[in-house]
Each structure stands twice: as C-alpha cells, then as structure tokens.
Amino acid sequence: MSRYFLxxxxxxxxxxxxxxxxxxxxxxxxxxxxxPLPGASVIVKGTTNGIQxxxxxxxxxxxxxxxxILVFSYIGFTAQEIPVNSQNSINVVLQEDxxxxxxxxxxxxxxxxxxxxxxxxxxxxxxxxxxxxSGAAMQSLQGKVAGLQVVxxxxxxxxxxxxxxxxxxxxxxxxxxxxxxDGVFFDDIxxxxxxxxxxxxxxxxxxxxxxxxxRAANGVVLIQTKSGRKNQKPQITYNGYQSVQxxxxxxxxxxxxxxxxxxxxxxxxxxxxxxxxxIQRYGRSRINPDVPDVNTDxxxxxxxxxxxxxxxxxxxxxxxxxxxxVGLNYFEQxxxxxxxxxxxxxxxxxxxxFDASDRLNIGxxxxxxxxxxxxxxxxxxxxxYYAVPVMPVLDPSKTDAFPRxxxxxxxxxxxxxxxxxxxxxxxxxxxxxxxxxMTIDLSYQLVPDKLTFKxxxxxNFETLEVREVRLPYFFGNGNxxxxxxxxxxxxxxxxxxxxxxxxxxxxxxxxHNLTLLAGTAFxxxxxxxxxxxxxxxxxxxxxxxxSYFLDLSDTIDLTEGNDGDRATGDDGSRQYFFSxxxxxxxxxxxxxxxxxxxxxxxxxxxxEKWGYFPAIGxxxxxxxxxxxxxxxxxxxxxxxxxxxxxxxxxxxxxxxxITSEEVTAAFxxxxxxxxxxxxxxxxxxxxxxxxxxxxxxxxxxxxQLSLEAxxxxxxxxxxxxxxxxxxxxxxxxQNVGEIKNTGFEIVMNWNxxxxxxxxxxxxxxxxxxxxxxxxxxxxENLTSGGxxxxxxxxxxxxxxxxxxxxxxxxxxxxxxxxxPAAQTAITNGLTVEPGDFRFVDxxxxxxxxxxxxxxxxxxxxxxxxGFNLGLNYKAWxxxxxxxxxxxxxxxxxxxxxxxxxxxxxxxxxxxxxxxNGAGTSNTYPSARGIRNPWSNQxxxxxxxxxxxxxxxxxxxxxxxxxxxxGDFNPKIRFYLTAERPLTLFDYNGFTPEVPDGRDNxxxxxxxxxxxxxxxxx
Length: 1017
What we know:
Elements: H1 2-21, E1 22-31, E2 41-44, E3 50-52, E4 58-65, E5 69-73, E6 80-83, E7 92-94, E8 104-107, E9 110-113, E10 121-125, H2 126-129, E11 148-151, E12 161-164, E13 178-181, E14 184-186, E15 197-203, H3 206-209, E16 220-225, E17 232-246, H4 256-265, H5 269-282, H6 298-302, E18 306-318, E19 322-334, E20 342-355, E21 360-375, H7 380-386, H8 421-425, E22 427-447, E23 451-470, E24 473-474, E25 481-482, E26 486-509, E27 512-535, E28 555-556, E29 569-588, E30 592-603, E31 610-621, E32 634-648, E33 658-667, E34 670-679, E35 687-700, E36 705-724, E37 731-753, E38 758-768, E39 770-775, E40 782-784, E41 790-792, E42 801-803, E43 806-809, H9 813-817, H10 820-827, E44 837-839, E45 854-857, E46 863-873, E47 876-886, E48 889-892, H11 893-898, H12 908-913, H13 933-936, E49 944-946, E50 949-960, E51 971-985, E52 998-999, E53 1007-1016
Parallel strand pairs: 1-7, 13-16, 48-52
Antiparallel strand pairs: 1-4, 2-3, 2-5, 5-6, 8-9, 10-15, 11-12, 13-14, 15-16, 17-18, 17-53, 18-19, 19-20, 20-21, 21-22, 22-23, 23-26, 24-25, 26-27, 27-28, 27-29, 29-30, 30-31, 31-32, 32-35, 33-34, 35-36, 36-37, 37-38, 37-39, 38-46, 40-41, 42-45, 43-44, 46-47, 47-50, 48-49, 50-51, 51-53
C-alpha cells in the first residue's frame, strides 16, 4: 500500500513539475507589410505540437515548454525560430522569401514547388510589377529576367516588344511569345492592369513550354491575377499616382546658322539661293545678317510634357470555404507628341472561388477592359527631323491657306513642304477597344487529396473600333494640300472560346512523390473585320466629331490602292484547335527529379493537321546526397537538364492557288487554243523549335545568396522563308529554313536581414545570345530592305545590315589620286573630292561596287544585363535597378535618307563634326560629300551605329506612416519614382531601343517622374 502511495505521489510530482514548465503562448503572425497571415504554421520545435493561425493571424498554443523554441512558417516566407523564454505572448513578422525552395510557382495547367523544377522559369511578383508606373504590365520586366528582351515604346497605349531568347523566325511578328492570363491565350496583354497581376512567370525552355504545343516556340508568359486567401478578413487597397512624362535624349537639329553654313558648303547654288529666299521672305537676322530672322526648333515645338495618372482600388478576402477578389482601375496617359495623342483605360475584374462541398470547388472570374487610344501621326517625327529651321510654323502672308496659314518650304524653293503641323493638326486616329473575359471552372476530388478532375471554360471577346479622320487643308500646290475630308471606319471582333479538361493525380508513398496530369483542350477562334471609307463629310470651323459618321459622307470610296487593298472591304477567319496533353513529374527523396510532357495539337489552320510536341527534364539535388559536405558556404545544389520541342503557329496560313489562262498559238498558219496552268500555292505548317537546356540552381552562405545559371541551344526547324520559284519569277513561302539561338544566362540574388530595422537585397542577371542561320534551302542569301539593305547568309544572323565599310574620309586630292578605286570611279564619270567617304575594296578589284558590301552588324543584342538594389530601414524603403544591352547596331535611316535630296535639315551632331577641311574629320563626310553619289550609292557603315546602352531604369523612395492601432488602422505608404531618368548611349537618335533596328521615326521614350500613395486597410 505504501509502495502504491509512493508511486502515485511520484507521478503527481512529475505532472506538477511538467505543468510548471509548460505554458500557453499566444500572439499574431503578420507579413512584412503588416497584413495578418491566416493559416501560418506555429509548432514547438522537435515535436508535433502545433497549430495554424486563424482568420486574423492569431494563434493560441498550449503545452509549450517555457524553455522551448517555436517555429513560425508560411509558404513563400522565411521561417523563424524564436525561443520561448517563458513568454506568454510572442508576435511575429515573417519576411517574404523570394528564394524559398518551398515556394510554389505557376507552370502550364498547374503549379509546382520551385525545388522540383527542372526547366527554366523566372517569376516576378506583384510588388516588383507595380514599381514601374506604366499601363503595360510587361514593361516592368525589363532588365529583371535573364534572356528576356523588352523593347520599350513611348507611344501611349502601346506595349513593349517582347522576345524570349532571341529571334527564331524570319516572319514579322512571329517571334512574339504566348501570353496566358488565368488559363486564357492572348497575343498581347496591353489591356491588362498591372495592379491586377499577382505574378508573371516566364517559361523559357521547351521543357516548360511544350505543354502549350503549337503556340509555345517563342516562350510562354503566364499571368496570374490576384485572388483572395481563405480565412482572411476583407483587405481594402488603393494605389494612386500622378506622373509627368518628359521627353529626353532628344536629337538636337541644326539651327539656322549651321543649316545655312551646310547649304553654302554643299556646292549647290540652289541650296545657297534657298537661304537667300528665306532672308527675303522672313527678314534678316540682327545677330547674323547672313541668315534669315527665323530659327525654328521643330522638335521643341511638336513635343510637350505630358501627364499620366493611375487609380486602382481592390478588395480581397475569404472565409473557411470561400475566397474573393475585386478590382477597379482607371489609367490615363497623355502622349508627349503635341496633338490628339493619348490613352485612357478603365478595367473592372472579379474572382470568386468557393468550396461547394469537401470535394467540389467552383471558380468564377471576369475581367472587362474599356480603352480609348488616340494614335500619333506616324510621319510627325520624320517631318520634324527634316524640316528646315529657316522657316516658321505659320506664315501670315499665306492668306489663301486654311485652316491656318502654315508655312511651306516650297515657297522658298525646296521640294518638300517640311512642316509637320498641317498633318498633325488635321489628323485624328482613334482606337476604341473592349475586352471581356469570363471563366468558370469546377474541380472535383474523385479521390480526396489524390485524384482531381477539373473542367474549365474560358471565353474572351474583343472588339476594336477604329476611326481615322483626315481633314482637308491647303497651304500650297503640289503636295501641300489634302483635298478630301476622309473618314475611315474599321470594326474588328474576336471571339475565342476554350474548353479545358484535366485529370490530376498526386501521391506520396515512402520517398516517392508522383504527379500525373492528362487533359484535352478545345479552342474556337473567330475573327471578323469590316472597313468602310467615306469622303467629304461636313467639316470646318465649329464642326466637331458629331459629323464623323459615314451617313454624312458624300461618297463611299470603292477604289483600290497601290497595295491591292480596297478602301472598303469585309474579311474574316475561323480557326479550330483540339489538343491532347499530359505530364508526369516524379521526385524521389527530394534528390532525383524526372519531368516529362507531351502534347498533340490539331488545327485547321494548315494543311498538316496534327503536330506532336514532347519534352523531358531531369534534376539531381546533389546537396541531398550523403557525400555532399555540409557547410554554411554551399547550402543547396541542383543540376538540371531538359530537352523538348514546341511549335510556332504565329506564321500566317497558306495562300495562293492554281490558276489557268487561255492562250492562242499559231501552228502552220492555223490558230490553236489551249490552257496554261501555273501554281502559286504555299503548303505551310507551323515552325518547330527544339531546345536543349542545362542549368544549375544553388544556394550559398546560409541561403542568403541564390544562383541560377543556364545554357540553352534553341534550333528552329521548318522556318518559313521565301524561296525562288523555278522558271517562274517571284517567290513562295516554304518551311525549309533553320535558325539557331544559343546563350548563357546567370541570375544572382543576395538577401540579408541585418536587424529588425534594416535589411537589403542585391540582384544581378546577365545573358548572352548568339543568333545563327543554319539553312536557307540552297539559296545563297535572302536580301531585303531596298536601299537600306539587309542580307541573311548561312552562318550569319537574321537580317543583318549589308553595305560598304567606310575606311575614313579623303582629306586631300593626293589621297584620291593614290586610291585606285577612286580613280576607277572618276573614270566611270563619278566625282570624288576631299570630304567624301573612302571605302574598303574588299574584293581587291580596284573599284567600289555592290560586290564590296559586307555584314555591318545585327539589330539583335548579343548580351543583356540587369542590376537591382533594395534597402529597407524602419519605415523607409529604397530600390534602384539598372539595365543595359550591347552587341547590336541601329541603322540611322533618318540620316541615310538625307543622301537622296538637298532639301532637308540634318542633326547638329553632323553639322558640328562634318569634314570642312583637311584634318577636321576622318569620320564625318562634308556637307557636299554626304549627298555625293560616290558616297551614298549603297548603305554604308557611317549610317549603321552601335546600339549599346546602359540605363538607370527605376529609382523609388518610399515612406510608410506609423500605425497607431485601433479598429481603423490603415497602412499608408507614400513614394516617389523616377523611371528612366538617365540613359547612356552613343547612338544619334532619341533612343537605342528600336525593335527592328531601322530608325526612321521612332517615338521618343520619355522619363517618367511619379508621386504616389498606397493605402491598405
């Protein structure tokens, strides 16, 4: 009995001691933005005792050892271990971990842990997207994704040009990536509000893209819009900003004194007389009596500072079985061109997901976008570049001109009018676009947490209403008038319906982790267009857009233009796609990774109906092996390798047909009739891209440094090129070309939390690109571009510029006498004088002709890079990023066109640096030499300039006001942003960002200076 009593006493004593050492701990878990994290995990380290936070991020955990350690974790955030130290209340702020291997990333038709990836995928989160004050979401990716080239556009409402790992097609526009917004395919996403985007994932290699089949050869951009979270109380956000856009890096044109000097040095009596005519018409300058009293800076007159504003309002939240997200946005951007040139967009979206039962989930989402864009006049910048400074905008003496007395250079003797304002002020180009996107999906767990069936229906409906108004004007004869008031209206509609069905199996058994996916997809794409042109509707003073209707036109224009297009026409197309696809992802012990996809695509677009696109990938997590040394230097190492094929259906479908013509021929004085049959039919299919990728993923220095490095080899087979027809003039398109793109990519990011008050991040990326043409179907070359020639040869790049190489400038007559090529030209009737170009005689035949032309460089950059820095100190945050590219060239077409006429102005750079005597320049020709037939018979290297640049892309400084608690406790952050404040480059143009490398009238890319506020409630 006593022994029993002692045993009970000892047990009670142990319980008492244990009870005294264990306590209850409560608190709240927030993110670094102050928002609660519902569903965050709180667990006693080394035990299974844990709990998840509730709707407001609160937790209450009992039986916690007073000397124990609590582990706080949440997907996508850095886990924290905090000693209890007998505390009953512990509040935690988790920092987002962009390097977390447990982070889930979006892939085709699903998601995958970053640690399990074998392909090359880059993801940009919402906080980095909205840092760029732009109406185009893709603009925010510039310089942030290795291997992604983003070519900016300055025109309002125009998105950037996007290229993933180079150019893989000769066809214009066929190298654009596929955009997938919440499962829906798009050709562009200019309608999308950046504030609505949760993340953008760029799928770069075929292992990642092949599951999208015939649309994926140029990379895939996956966009996830914002959603709510379960057990999250309603969170209201507002982001508003006001920006001013300022034209920068403007080309300075020759002023009146410089232009007059050039005219008198040109050797042309007519040009010198035009200056005298201007003096007589506009008076003589008091400062310099040798020039007229006019000094017009045309760029200064056609440009303006422009405003931009954005207002976004959103609500997200959720309960135990439902999540929701709603957003409204208004965006307005004026253009820096001083005419009706702006962009306005209103977006509304909604997303709802709810669990109808333990197994059934239903998702609904809608997005509506309504935009109005006034396009700039295409010729404005070219006209301003060539306009002579010796003439004003208005000439009061032109009393017969209307609607205003525009000055006309023809009145001074010049051949062109050289005044951009008549066409700018009497042209209005309006596009009204509407996008309506609706999706509904149902997911049912056939086997709970293992086998899920999902069916999803997507419908995207787009309309575009184009209205082009061209009002009449008169300020001289010849080409200085527009006779008819012309109204062009074009309506386009696009309806695209998609129905996807997938079956997904997930299972883990022992050390094995398996995911299987099988699915089908059906797409129905219908497009229609109707265009009508009306002439002479009511117009004039006091009459506005109330008259811009075809019913008020005197005539409907039915004529056919030089391009074969009719002024009035009706067009349309309909395409169907049906696909089977599947995926297998296998992970053994978090060490060995296997990944494979296959897609069969059927379409009525081409004669070949079906395409088959496989892909495989493998990964080895070396750091999980027992032999891998455990250290704080190298924490994680994964080797990756992938191979796959994908298609490019951006190539237009086949055209042409078989034609027969009746002919009559005489044989023995007897006429006979017959038929001559010819075929111009093109049997095309999609281009096929095969990509091999090898990569390394590593984490170093206590996981503070992440590294991603990739090498890719991307070969496009069946590339569509023009092929000369046998015995018949002309060409047809055929799938016979081959193009290769290879390169290295490396991305490094360092994140360091120094203290509770200070943290910083540093990131950098660098990518190389080598573009090479492998096959032209036996043809020696493909030449295009006319005078601004581009020639493709096997072993070279796509469409490099092709011309003469300038070796210098002749300084003296003796140099010309000692140059056999110059003497040959003189013998053949050409004039060669000091100040003319000296060319390289590449074939050594002592003459300069077309056979001496060489490759002058490609517009495709050979390397791109980006650098970013982020600092957080208490309530302050600062970020900066720098971007750049190099190895490409730009053809200065504006300058090149000067060679053909003595009329126009030219930039000040030429005027200052021109050759004007022995020893003055060995680079720039003389005022006469730039127009001398000897110097300008072909494109030459003087007009092809380097396109390298380095840009301070974005600088942002923010301050978050203190929060004081209470029921209403909004988080308010103010910020200042400078977008593109500084660009360093040598090219003599507005911008080194020219998509096709031909700079004739590129719209300037402005610097944008922004003040904004973020409010979260």
